[in-house]
Design a protein that fits this description.
heterodimer, A: mainly alpha, two-stranded antiparallel ribbon, 2 strands, B: mainly alpha, Arp2/3 complex 21 kDa subunit ARPC3, about 0% strand
Chain lengths: ~250, ~325
């Protein structure tokens, strides 16, 4: 797994990509809030799909990628929702005289919201580089120490993922995925322990390298983002759009 | 080992906001505490440990043929770093999971930080401190890690039904949902506890002193559980699980159901309604519901039996292997 496997689309360029991270974060927050503020038995109309999917298409993010990613994180919600029709037997009147059991409507509603919410979140994540996202979060008031954590995490994530994959490959080369259960658990724990040892030593070296470069507890940002008129326009348009959808 | 990330869509804005405020409050406190005990080299250490937890999830642990789980790491972080720093690290992990992998919604971050960060870190750490004392023996260390991990994870998971119930979007009998989450996470927590202990033991053996203050606590321990320890923890979990399953299968009505019954209200479903469409719809609903009420009892009974059997089988298999290994060693010697 390499860097661009996860956020490769964030490094493309489009009008959506060029929006300030803050505008996109706020827009997705507003959109998601309105989405989940709908009453239990209301299925969001197709108009709700306009904002996230316009962003995705305009930014050139393939919808296949969106679908695959949504499926990947859906199991918990799907499992839970599968129980709704069993437990919720109240009756809900849809258009005119059509009446169905509430559980089915609630399940459909949660699933539709989930797909829309995921599309919005993917639209944010795959049009904004992670460092820009962090800068946006910082300027929206997320504590400095937490943003610092996130910067380190992101910086070392791919390095350590690579190491973990090497360790895993070495293990598979030796045991071919077979062997007694207890033995494999002990082995697995040993591999995690090894990774932890490497991690801790890496942290030491990193700290020394940072001190050598003059680290004083703050991280300087090379490219501060700039809030432009486009960003106002985008944010206001989003707010008007969801307000009209929800209350009008 | 298995993170149940809350999705936005199971929450209402009020509940989401409530947990955001609570979590933000705890985070500010934790930030202040970490900042106060500011040791410069802790900052990169925390960040890199966050990446470590991610990477460690690449390593699979076989459970039953065809299924495997992975390490969660929350309680290990708490034991290594203390609850304040561990909460910060878990929060950064959850934010990355949300923003890069879209696992867990943006508005659900407050609840996820609470369930998977704050509760396991603070509760797990407190239990570990209480039980381990200053220089625990191997057995005592294992017991402390076991209880801290199990209780921390189960308590965090038990928050999910409560939050969903507060939101009221998803209608389900509260106690069944709660018991299902607890039962599932008893198993998950068992695996997590064993891995956490083995990892600590391994690091103490190969690099004594690397774990800093924790090393003092665990230096006496060898990091080997021994069959007795594993059997004892399996037994404890099996007992707890048996309790959960029995409760789940019991005919006792929900607290809420009994309240409504006492007040003379009838459940919405039975509300007298002569409308033909509605009765037909109800009949259809009865047919389409895969498992109408009365079958749940037996199903949970079967599930419980299956789980117990699986556990017995696992233990038996472990025993057989061990004996075989022992014989192998003996014959080689």
């Amino acid at each position: 797994m390499h860097h661009h496997y996860i956020d490769r689309f964030a490094y493309q360029d489009s009008p959506i990509h060029r929006l300030d991270a803050r505008a996109k974060i706020l827009a997705v927050l507003v959109y998601s809030t309105v989405l989940i503020s709908l009453p239990r038995y209301v299925i969001p109309s197709a108009w709700y799909a306009v904002l996230p999917f316009t962003m995705l298409v305009w930014a050139g993010v393939p919808l296949r990628f969106v679908a695959k990613h949504t499926l990947l994180v859906s199991p918990f919600v799907v499992c839970l929702v599968a129980f709704a029709p069993v437990f919720d037997r109240s009756l809900v009147r849809l258009h005119g005289t059509w009446t169905v059991a509430g559980g089915w409507v609630a399940a459909a509603s949660i699933l539709v919201r989930f797909v829309l919410g995921m599309a919005a979140l993917i639209a944010l994540a795959s049009t904004t580089r992670f460092p820009d996202l962090l800068r946006g979060l910082r300027r929206l008031g997320v504590p400095h120490i937490l943003v610092l954590q996130l910067q380190f995490l992101y910086r070392y994530l791919f390095l350590l993922l690579d190491q973990a994959m090497h360790i895993r490959q070495a293990r598979t080369a030796r045991d071919a995925g077979k062997g007694p259960l207890a033995w494999r658990w002990r082995g697995g724990a040993g591999q995690i322990g090894m990774l932890l040892v490497r991690t801790l030593e890496q942290a030491d070296r990193t700290h020394m390298a940072m001190l050598a470069r003059g680290y004083d507890g703050t991280i300087q940002m090379v490219r501060p983002g700039r809030w432009r008129q486009h960003d106002w326009a985008f944010l206001l348009a989003t707010i008007v759009y969801v307000t009209v959808l929800r209350w009008w | 080992m298995l993170a149940m990330h809350m999705a936005n869509e199971l929450l209402t804005p009020v509940v989401a906001l409530l947990f955001m405020v609570v979590s933000a409050g705890v985070l500010m406190l934790a930030s202040a505490r970490v900042g106060a005990s500011f040791e410069q080299d802790r900052i990169p250490l925390m960040g890199v440990l966050g990446a470590f937890v991610f990477a460690a999830q690449m390593i699979n642990f076989p459970i039953l043929p065809g299924t495997s789980g992975h390490f969660g790491g929350g309680v290990l972080l708490a034991i290594l770093l203390g609850p304040h720093a561990a909460t910060l690290v878990m929060t950064s992990i959850l934010i990355v999971q949300c923003l890069i992998f879209q696992d867990g919604g943006l508005l659900a971050l407050g609840t996820n930080v609470f369930n998977l960060g704050i509760v396991p870190a603070y509760l797990g750490y407190a239990l570990f401190r209480l039980m381990a004392g200053l220089r625990p023996s191997g057995g005592r260390l294992y017991a402390s890690v076991f209880v801290a991990t199990l209780v921390g994870m189960v308590a965090g998971a038990a928050m999910v039904p409560i939050e969903v119930r507060l939101s009221g979007l998803f209608v389900a009998p509260m106690h069944k949902f709660l018991l299902a989450m607890i039962g599932l996470h008893l198993l998950v927590g068992l695996g997590e506890a064993i891995i956490t202990f083995l990892v600590i033991g391994y690091v103490v053996r190969v690099r004594p002193g690397l774990l800093g203050p924790v090393a003092d606590r665990v230096s006496a321990a060898t990091g080997k559980i021994g069959l007795k320890g594993v059997l004892a923890s399996f037994f404890v979990v099996a007992l707890l699980l048996g309790g959960v399953v029995a409760h789940w299968a019991s005919e006792a009505p929900d607290a809420l159901e009994s309240i409504t019954a006492a007040e003379g209200h009838q459940p919405a479903m039975v509300a007298a309604n002569e409308n033909e469409t509605i009765s037909r719809a109800t009949a259809w609903q009865e047919r389409t519901a895969l498992l109408p009420d009365y079958r749940w009892t037996s199903l949970s009974g079967i599930a419980g039996t299956a789980l117990t059997l699986a556990m017995v089988w696992l233990v038996g298999r472990g025993l057989a292997r061990r004996r075989k290994e022992a014989q192998g060693v003996a014959s080689r010697e």
